[in-house]
Write a structure and sequence with these properties.
globular; alpha/beta; Rossmann fold; disordered N terminus; about 350 residues; single chain; three-stranded antiparallel sheet; 13 helices; binds ligand FO1
Amino acid sequence: MTSPAGGPTAEATPPLRVTVLSGGVGGARFARGMRRHLARSGREAALTCIVNTGDDMWLNGLRVCPDLDSVMYGLAGVHDRDRGWGRADETERVSAELLAYGVGADWFTLGDLDLGTHIARSQMLREGLGLTEVTSRLSSRWDLGATLLPATEHSVETRVRVGDGPDDTLHFEEWWVRHRAAMPALGFEQAGADAAGPGPGVLEAIAEADLLVLAPSNPIVSIGTILGIPGLREAVRSASSPVVGVSPILGDAPVLGMAAQCLTAVGAEVSAAGVAEHYGARTRDGLIDGWLVDTKDAAAVDRLAGSGIAARAVPLLMSSDELAADMAAAAQALASSLRVAG
Ligand code: FO1
């Protein structure tokens, strides 16, 4: 092949396709890091985030999608940096009015700017658009540098079992936010999963990825919920790219949120190695090939080798985009080493 000038052309390097399975706040921070890492590398790349929808709910007649919004706001840079969720510079005047009328939910705060998102989303859904198209239209307002895909367009609700009776389950947000996880979780259920399937583009984003990463999100109610949608676990298991996960546990504590309560409820060990073994090695009917643990968990590397998982110990800090980008770079380097080895 020759260039228009007559000389030989360099073969164009195809864009690197990176797909991240993500929950809310931790997933958003990791996605920002991955975007920064890809920009630093100078290689053309396409980043896709498949986002948990198990926390979604109707509130005040509006469809609220906490994890999609956390990732969208995080990538847009308009998120509340202290809370992780919701918008920066937020006010709560509308919620106060709703409560004054006795119709608001006093346990789940919807800020005024955030309400704009829920109103727009709900209007588009009522017009008949699917959640994937709606998410694309909402995202197009910002330059996210990533495509957000809801894991499913079906209603698949994460419910927390708090007793043995048929009605002894709570919506995840009720358990977590309303009751502050005070009731011990006996298990987690996915209401509606039987009739659900992956959202548009999700299976393609997994099958066509050059790098597939499980973000350091909650392994049970975020990543686990995504994987519980019929067809998704099999899609990850049969992906042609390496599958690398990042530990959400540092030492014996989750980086964020409620991973410890959720792991305990399903009988999994609350440790970096425990989460990796919960996912399991792809060579042994599991899901992952590689796993990043924090340097303080370096002892897990040898243990995981025995479980068929190639682990590396690197600093797992996401306190700045630069550090999160270093983590993403380590995930890509681990995947590359597995590709070479494989
Ligand atoms: N978390 C809270 O702890 N309290 C809240 O009032 C709250 C409101 C809220 C509103 C919109 C949204 O997108 C997220 C919100 N979150 C709130 C975060 C959310 O409960 C969870 O952190 C995620 O669902 C878990 O990923």
